[in-house]
Design goal:
Keywords: FAD, Flavoprotein, Monooxygenase, Oxidoreductase. This is FAD-binding domain-containing protein. One of its GO terms (molecular function) is monooxygenase activity. By secondary structure, the chain is α/β, with parallel strands linked by helices. It is built from twelve helices and 19 strands. It has two domains: 263 residues, FAD/NAD(P)-binding domain (3-Layer(bba) Sandwich); 111 residues, D-Amino Acid Oxidase, Chain A, domain 2, CATH 3.30.9.60. The strands form four sheets. It has an eight-stranded mixed sheet. It has a six-stranded mixed sheet with strand order 7-2-1-11-19-18. A hairpin with a 3-residue loop joins strand 13 and strand 14. The radius of gyration is 22 Å and the shape is globular. The structure holds flavin-adenine dinucleotide. Flavin-adenine dinucleotide binds next to helix 1, strand 2, strand 3 and helix 7. The site of flavin-adenine dinucleotide (FAD) has 31 residues, from helix 1, strand 2, strand 3 and helix 7.
């Protein structure tokens, strides 16, 4: 029996966003929260994940940073993928001024385990695939599951990823499309690559005309005698194959991946060649229109990949998702005594997070415009094209992303509000 004074919340999806939201909300005594994940057990596909200062800030707030360890290298090389020529060296000091832990690449499972360890086990239900939501006139939302059970809650958090059903219900006209951009990812023992020159010495991007290879450590070598290494191959113009193009983690054959690097430097082809059959996982990129607002019905909120079509553009999507969850908790806490706490909390959430995503879109658009100009100019060599791509990746000030201090964002936001009483009692 749930006390009437409690706000009941259903989080849909147990990725980084859903788990972080569950941690943040489970600390609020006036919230009764449940997380519903469609998979029958915790599952994390993919290989590595990049974590920078912004990630440490939010992981610290969630008290989930302890178990998160990974690999980092002093330098990142940008290379011509066909010749191996080094086009740029990015120096990464081991300890950045902003956070002594610096930027690391960790196994995705490390992040997932660290978050899972902080979520009270009894609030997660696996094997619960949401199939519909009803906006109830008398208040609340009815959440229906594939197993024909249902719950009625005050607030639904759509943390169900890029192909979010919550978003589809909230914004029925919002259509996703396959971008043609596909990644194949794998982790292999670093020792299996040791015979190939220059592959494991640095984090590196090997750029080609229609795709690239990315290689990186993912383990802290002081922790394990058998560190693993990530290889990601990306192709920018894949055809969509009805029924088999799906966004997340289906197996891909060695032949398929090898065929995407046929023209690449021998070292890249050799690295791809060491991967045992059956290990590659394929990730197809989807995108859709940008949402101006990421809440609806005054009782549904989208977080993480469900809320934006960034498609891994900044390699920080897991952090954005976790930040979303924490801000939602702060907004609910702030407005708990308000006459209409949920609409007010969702408004605050939207006012903080939507402009942040808009800023990222603007940054992406700027980069895209530059690339288009470069493509149109007739007199470019391949090296110039690749250099433009690298400038696009590294250029512009992205401190607002990688150094984002979400606690400060919250403090700055509430400092702009005229009077605390106005916040808690008005709408
Ligand atoms: C190739 C690639 C590389 C990337 N690299 C990085 C990186 O280096 N760093 C980084 O931070 N990010 C990276 N990202 C992005 C990152 O993976 C996502 O931004 C992040 O996983 C988003 O978290 P989320 O919780 O919003 O969604 P997801 O991780 O997608 O989780 C959604 C969850 O919802 C569940 N679900 C879906 N539908 C339903 C339903 N109907 N009912 C119940 N449950 C449901 C799913 O099973 C899943 O568990 C990368 C992405 C890709 C594709």
């Amino acid at each position: 029996m749930i006390a009437k004074s409690l706000i009941t919340v259903a989080i849909i999806g147990g990725g980084p966003g859903g788990l972080a939201t569950a941690i943040a909300l489970s600390k609020l005594p006036f919230v009764h929260v449940r997380l519903y994940e469609q998979n029958p057990e915790p599952r994390e596909a993919g290989a590595g994940i990049s974590l920078s200062t912004n990630a440490w800030k939010i992981l610290d707030l969630l008290q989930a940073s302890d178990g998160v360890k990974g690999g980092s290298k002093a330098n990142t090389h940008q290379r011509n993928g066909y010749t191996g020529k080094i086009l740029n060296v990015q120096e990464q000091p081991e300890n950045s001024g902003a956070d002594a832990r610096g930027s690391i690449r960790a196994r995705r499972t490390r992040l997932q385990s660290a978050l899972l360890a902080r979520v009270p086990a009894e609030i997660i239900e696996y094997g619960k695939r949401v199939v519909s939501l009803d906006n109830l006139e008398e208040g609340g939302v009815r959440v229906k599951f594939k197993d024909e059970t249902e719950v009625v809650v005050d607030l639904v958090v759509g943390a169900d990823g890029i192909r979010s059903i919550v978003r589809r219900i909230l914004f029925p006209d919002h259509q996703l499309h396959f971008t043609g951009n596909t990644a194949w990812r794998v982790l292999v023992p670093k020792s299996s690559l040791a015979h190939i020159p220059d592959i494991t010495q640095t984090t590196a991007w090997w750029w080609g005309e229609t795709g690239h290879a990315y290689v990186s450590d993912v383990d802290d070598e002081t922790e394990t005698a058998d560190p693993h290494f990530e290889i990601t191959i990306r192709s920018y113009h894949e055809p969509e194959i009805a029924g088999t193009t799906v966004p997340w983690g289906i197996p891909a054959s060695n032949d398929k991946v090898a065929s995407r690097v046929l023209k690449f430097d021998q070292r890249v082809r050799d690295a791809v060649g060491v991967v045992p059959e059956g290990q590659w996982r394929e990730f197809a990129g989807y995108a859709g229109p940008r949402l101006e607002h990421i809440t609806g019905w005054d009782k549904v909120v989208l977080i993480g990949d469900a809320s934006h079509p960034l498609q891994g553009a900044f390699g920080s999507g897991a952090t954005f998702a976790m930040e979303d969850g924490w801000i939602l908790a702060r907004a609910l806490e702030r407005t708990r005594s308000s006459a209409s706490p949920l609409p007010r909390a969702l408004k605050i959430f939207d006012e903080i997070r939507s402009p942040y995503y808009m800023r990222m879109y603007a940054h992406l658009d700027e980069g895209r415009e530059k690339m288009q100009k470069q493509r149109k100019s007739e007199s470019h060599t391949l090296d110039e094209l690749l250099k433009a791509r690298i400038d696009n990746l590294l250029g512009g000030n992205k401190d607002f992303i990688y150094k984002n201090d979400i606690q400060k964002v919250w403090n700055d936001y509430i400092a702009t509000l005229p009077d605390e009483d106005d916040v808690t009692d008005s709408n």
